[in-house]
Specification:
With 313 residues, this protein is an alpha+beta fold. The chain has nine helices and twelve strands. The chain has three domains: 81 residues, Helix Hairpins, CATH 1.10.287.90; 110 residues, Cupredoxins -  blue copper proteins (Immunoglobulin-like); 98 residues, Orthogonal Bundle (Cytochrome Bc1 Complex, Chain D, domain 2), CATH 1.10.760. The strands form three sheets. The protein has a five-stranded mixed sheet, with no helix packed on it. It has a five-stranded mixed sheet with strand order 4-10-9-6-7. A two-stranded antiparallel sheet has the order 11-12. It starts with a helix and ends with a helix. The structure holds dinuclear copper ion.
């Protein structure tokens, strides 16, 4: 019945996901069994004890002690089995081993920020080594978000002013999608992340040099990837349409009016400053809601974004 399980449920990214699904499938099949039993008996009794004529009168039936004990004790045992099974899974899901790699997670409108123990920070993308437990310590900068990775069967709210935690133990290399599972505003459905489970060598290589895919890419092409993966897209369109921030379409070379009465032509330095210190110059027709990307983008990534914006003419 594995085909049924694979249709019903997403990929299983860890042993915990398998255990989780074992219990889930147990409950599914138990429900199927009792549905068939009860609906079948219902149909059978309706036919078997149908009224056969005007004189067919039901005799006075009293209770059956034996039957009542059976239909109380058996379900009670089943429910206890489900509870013990589920509780053991819950304990496993909530207690992380002491040697886990700790990653800090900040949820904010509308992106995920990660920080590794060595201070490296990434956005909407994390790499973790295969076969090692990873613990996420999570908090929000604004509203409630929810960290949800279906293929690991884990989900936890990410709340402002407190920490919640969650851990993973990936057993195979692969890429998994991270979702935000708590409605947090217009960009909620774009609040996606990727979790790359890498081999030990690939992971340390990435830690030193960044993603190999992006290392040798032309700047504007890299910028296009960053535009999507780092959340720029949520607020800045490229087709000239208005979102929470100015569109990148045709922005390069335009003259911007700021709230302090000054103005400037959009050039490389202005774009760089707007990424690193978004509050320095605020356009008259927009609210200054952009977060700073200081420390979150490598120098080459900033250059790439600038080149990408330049290419949107
Ligand atoms: Cu963050 Cu929904």
């Amino acid at each position: 019945m594995n085909w049924f399980r694979s249709i019903l449920l997403p990929v299983e990214g860890s042993a915990y996901a398998q255990q989780h699904d074992d219990l889930f499938m147990f409950i599914v099949w138990l429900s199927v069994f009792f549905f068939l039993l009860i609906a079948g008996l219902l149909g059978f009794f309706t036919w078997r004890y149908r009224r056969r004529g005007p004189d067919d009168i039901t005799p006075n039936i009293s209770h059956s002690f034996k039957l009542e004990v059976i239909w109380s004790v058996i379900p009670a045992i089943i429910v206890i089995v489900i509870f013990v099974w589920g509780f053991r899974g819950y304990v496993r899901a909530t207690t992380s081993p002491g040697d886990a790699l700790e990653i800090q997670v900040i949820g904010k409108k509308w992106l995920w920020e990660f920080e590794y123990p060595d201070g490296m920070r990434t956005l909407n993308e994390i790499h973790i080594p295969v076969g090692k437990p990873v613990r996420f310590i999570m908090s929000s900068e604004d509203v409630i978000h929810s960290f949800y990775v279906p293929s690991f069967r884990v989900k936890k709210d990410v709340v402002p002013n407190m920490y919640t935690e969650l851990w993973l133990h990936p057993e195979e290399e692969g890429i998994h999608t991270l979702f935000c599972a708590e409605y947090c505003g217009r960009g909620h459905s774009d609040m996606l992340g990727s979790i790359y489970v890498d081999s030990e060598e690939k992971f340390s290589e990435w830690q030193e040099m960044g993603d190999e895919r992006t290392r040798n890419m032309p700047l504007a092409e890299l910028g296009a990837i960053l535009y999507e993966s780092r959340g720029c897209e949520t607020c800045h369109s490229i087709d000239g349409s208005r979102r929470d921030g100015p569109s990148f379409g045709g922005i390069f070379g335009a003259t911007h009016q700021f709230t302090d009465g000054t103005s400037a032509v959009v050039d490389e330095n202005y774009l760089r400053q707007s990424i690193l210190e978004p509050q320095a110059k605020i356009l008259t027709s927009y609210e200054g809601i952009m977060p700073t990307f200081q420390g979150l983008l490598r120098d080459r990534e900033i250059q790439a974004l600038v080149e990408f914006i330049k290419s949107q003419q």
